[in-house]
Write a structure and sequence with these properties.
two-stranded antiparallel ribbon, 2 helices, mainly alpha, 90 residues, 9% strand, single chain
């Protein structure tokens, strides 16, 4: 019962975010070019640049979280090896 409620809640939230993204894309469709120091990007819709920056932030966040998770797993494995006694799973 709770699982179905969670699926409905997250599905509704995903649908709402998709609708918000479509509205954002319709309002920000003019072409822009970005300038960083002396580099000038090709002209593309503002919504595309926003999506690319969001995707880059998402990937960077996953990478940083992955490094932290990997460190925690390695530390946990090291601690598990240092425990005395039977290590067989029960």
């Amino acid at each position: 019962m709770l699982r179905a409620l969670a699926v409905l809640t997250y599905g509704g939230l995903a649908l709402l975010l998709l609708l918000l993204g479509v509205l954002l894309g319709m309002d920000n469709s003019e072409d822009v070019s970005l300038t960083v120091l002396t580099w000038v990007s090709p002209s593309a819709p503002l919504f595309l640049w926003l999506c690319l920056v969001f995707l880059a932030g998402l990937l960077l966040g996953y990478a940083v979280a992955g490094v932290g998770t990997l460190r925690a797993r390695l530390a946990l494995r090291k601690l598990a090896r240092s425990l005395p006694g039977d290590r067989s799973p029960s």
